[in-house]
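User: Structure please.
Assistant: Input sequence and predicted structure:
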Amino acid sequence: MVPTAESAHLTRGYNRTVSTLPATTLDSSAAATKLLVLEDRLRQLGSLMVAYSGGVDSAFLAAVAHRVLGDRMLAVLADSPSLARRDLDQASSFAQIQGIPLRVIQTEELDNPEYQRNDANRCFHCKTELFEGMKKLGAELGFANIAYGMNADDRRDYRPGQRAAENHEVLAPLADVNLTKQEIRSLAKDAGYTLWDRPAAPCLSSRVEYGRTVTREVLEQIERGEESLRQLGFREFRVRHHGDIARVEISRSEMPRAMTMEMMDTISAELRKAGFKYVTMDCTGFRSGSLNAVLPAEVLLRRGA
């Protein structure tokens, strides 16, 4: 659908009228009300491209947008060395099962020296590459609006990609109606989406310590290491890349199984096969964004700015 002057007007109105619904603890009635507001906002847009990764947030947004807009929406998946092949397959499978129109585009953030440098702005450069590619695709296909899966909880985390979204006028419908991660998972479960409890799966580059150059070889090493842990039956974990050292984070609920001598020997052997010389187990367990602990306080205070 080619956007009209009317749909452009509605988009501007969308940006001006951000919902003031409060973020709450899980309440099924509150979540259902927010979903109705979300559906109405998407309907007003007329057409929409969704930056889609296959994670719970973007998948839920894509599914709702497709239900509301039909073929006037398009999910766009960025494929690059930072996307694990498993995640690509899962994202493609969900879109196919739900009948969501999907376009896979190749992004070249790894060719950008500023991205390779891997400082605190890495995600900004990645999202900039994605949104610029989506804008070009939107111009070709007649989509004026782009959205991504930021939720209400993401406002409290350090996510420089949010600045890239603002720079490119990318909408954040889930956050704008104050849907939290927990509410999105609950609504996804109610809708019968099997991915409702899927662990978060950010890009492979997020496992590389700040300041270490991001290369294809480093990303492949991480992917091999994490796949070996998955094959061992672990569900929520990260392999953090510190050069020769792999720092393994496993959810605290799974740590008793991981901390037997036999399993530790197996994990060490598998990660050495992936190319690491030393393997260490983080006794604190898995926590999202743990590498951000080394960032200066003034950087963290900027959050998405």
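Residues 162 and 221 are 28 Å apart (CA to CA).
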